[in-house]
């Protein structure tokens, strides 16, 4: 164990680098609270999106790395800011008119447009928890509404009243002049309308723990800052939460990065120690726009899980968190295949290499074996030419390629066959464009068909790849990628494809020859036109 811990302490994998920063906080003495606290925040103003999952997945990876290098207990809080006022109606939910009647009310006071939970905030919290539970995350859920109303936040709120001027000095320095006139770190909740009010505070009584303000109808009211009568503006809330819970680590998107000094300073003003933070790049949709809960653009977690297993999504989240990621359906096949490549590499790696392998972080060191005998991208190409209507049709080819494989012995392969058919029908088939070969391509394809007709060896992927490559060279293709692109465009209706030798071995030598002959006869172009 000591050798493994030493390897972990020296690993350059980013979760270990972050874990070491957290551990450094306690190099002199352990935490008084008895554990190290990791936190993630969620704004339930709309349905949870894939970025929310990514935040919890990545924080979990750092937590696992921490557990590898330290014996200090850990906890992970998933904190939902469900007391925020609903500023606008999300575009991707029903009952838009009803929701418009509840603007500015706390999300846990807005009725659930789906009619399933006691509030819209409650619905979105349940969706978040269901998603997180799907992935087996170990976490503790905290609702801001419950946190404010139960009194758990009271001590920090009273301290905020005492330190009101210091907090306001930090906040006002970051605001435009016109915003400064009406800004307060405290937002009262109107006892008459139930709305979160963005109004100037006329007086803060630190000794009594109250604020005085004018309600929407102009009547002057005084409310205690405790018991859920007020909430903090989101920037002060961030820092106050860190102080109240004694948070050790929180990550957030790049759009928060300019606010980090504000969060840190408010945490310190309220008597806390600023946590370690990690800023990740944003997730973008296919148009390069930031993914938004209210717009519902970009991939959802459910959509990813329609076409691939959950581990492939975790793999995608591990990769380069400091680089912006385009989240569209076309990233799924690559993520699936790379995840299984890493699984296959893991058993032969040294401990150093294993700690740098994404699958260690995805599975917390309990890494399963891959049973994917055919890559996902190859399954898509097989679906393109096999005309299979269900995964049973694909298994006929898979078994011939890997005789020992079966749905029972290879459950991930079996699941992937079903995913691949679904993905092919929804995304590949509608975009296929077959073309006729040029003269040089036709001669090379005729040569390939002839050599396949005479092929009398086992259908070995490498031997077939060597033969396909030799044909391209002999027919003068330069660069060689032009030959392979011709194969994909003419035979598969796509610009990209698999190693072609492997495709022949999977689909079959005779079947590939027949496919080439159909293409040369113009049947593939004709069928696509109809």
UniProtKB/TrEMBL annotation:
Keywords: Aminoacyl-tRNA synthetase, ATP-binding, Cytoplasm, Ligase, Nucleotide-binding, Protein biosynthesis. This is Lysine--tRNA ligase. It catalyses: tRNA(Lys) + L-lysine + ATP = L-lysyl-tRNA(Lys) + AMP + diphosphate. Its EC number is 6.1.1.6. It comes from the Bacteria. It is an enzyme of class 6 (ligase). A motif ('HIGH' region) lies at residues 44-52. SUPFAM superfamilies: An anticodon-binding domain of class I aminoacyl-tRNA synthetases, Nucleotidylyl transferase. GO terms for molecular function: ATP binding; lysine-tRNA ligase activity; tRNA binding. Pfam families: tRNA-synt_1f. Its main location: cytoplasm. One of its GO terms (biological process) is lysyl-tRNA aminoacylation.
């Amino acid at each position: 164990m000591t050798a493994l811990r030493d390897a972990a302490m020296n690993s350059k994998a980013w979760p270990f680098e972050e874990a070491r920063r957290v551990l450094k906080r306690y190099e002199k003495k352990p935490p008084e609270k008895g554990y190290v606290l990791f936190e993630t925040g969620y704004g339930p103003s709309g349905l949870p999106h894939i970025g929310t999952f990514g935040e919890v997945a990545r924080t979990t990876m750092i937590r696992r790395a921490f557990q590898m290098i330290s014996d200090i207990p850990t906890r992970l809080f998933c904190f939902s800011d469900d007391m925020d006022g609903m500023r606008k109606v999300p575009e991707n939910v029903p009952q838009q008119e009803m929701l418009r009647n509840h603007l500015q009310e706390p999300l846990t006071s807005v009725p659930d447009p789906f009619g399933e939970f006691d509030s819209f905030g409650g619905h979105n919290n349940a969706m978040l928890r269901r998603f997180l539970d799907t992935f087996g995350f170990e976490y503790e859920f905290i609702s801001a509404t419950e946190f404010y109303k139960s009194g758990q936040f009271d001590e920090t709120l009273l301290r905020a009243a005492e330190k009101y001027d210091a907090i306001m000095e930090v906040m006002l320095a970051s605001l435009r002049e016109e915003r400064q006139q009406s800004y307060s770190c405290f937002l009262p909740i109107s006892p008459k309308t139930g709305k979160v009010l963005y109004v100037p505070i006329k007086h803060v009584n630190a000794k009594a723990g109250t604020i005085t303000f004018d309600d929407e109808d102009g009547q002057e009211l005084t409310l205690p800052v405790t018991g859920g009568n007020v909430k903090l503006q989101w920037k002060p809330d961030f820092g106050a939460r860190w102080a109240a819970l004694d948070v050790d680590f929180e990550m957030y998107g790049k759009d928060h990065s300019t606010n980090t000094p504000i969060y840190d300073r408010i945490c310190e003003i309220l008597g806390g120690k600023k946590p370690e933070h990690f800023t990740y790049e944003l997730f973008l949709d296919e148009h390069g726009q930031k993914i938004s809960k209210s717009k519902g653009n970009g991939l959802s977690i459910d959509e990813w899980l329609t076409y691939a297993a959950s581990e492939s999504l975790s793999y995608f989240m591990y990769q380069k968190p400091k680089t912006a990621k385009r989240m569209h359906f076309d990233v799924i096949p690559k993520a699936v295949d790379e995840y299984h490549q890493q699984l296959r590499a893991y058993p032969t790696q040294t401990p150093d290499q294993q700690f740098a392998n994404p699958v260690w972080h995805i599975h917390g060191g309990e890494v399963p074996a891959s049973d994917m005998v055919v890559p996902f991208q190859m399954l898509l190409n097989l679906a393109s030419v096999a005309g299979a209507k269900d995964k049973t049709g694909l298994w006929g080819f898979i078994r011939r390629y890997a005789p020992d494989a079966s749905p029972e012995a290879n459950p991930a392969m079996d699941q992937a066959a079903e995913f691949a058919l679904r993905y092919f029908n929804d995304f590949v088939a509608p975009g296929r464009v077959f073309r006729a070969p040029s003269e040089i391509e036709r001669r090379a394809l005729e040569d390939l068909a002839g050599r396949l007709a005479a092929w009398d060896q086992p259908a070995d992927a490498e031997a077939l790849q060597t033969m396909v490559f030799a044909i391209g060279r002999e027919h003068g293709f330069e660069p060689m990628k032009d030959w392979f692109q011709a194969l994909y465009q003419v035979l598969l209706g796509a610009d990209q494809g698999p190693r072609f030798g492997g495709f022949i071995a999977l689909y079959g030598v005779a079947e590939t020859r027949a496919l080439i002959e159909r293409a040369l006869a113009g049947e593939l172009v004709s069928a696509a036109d109809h």
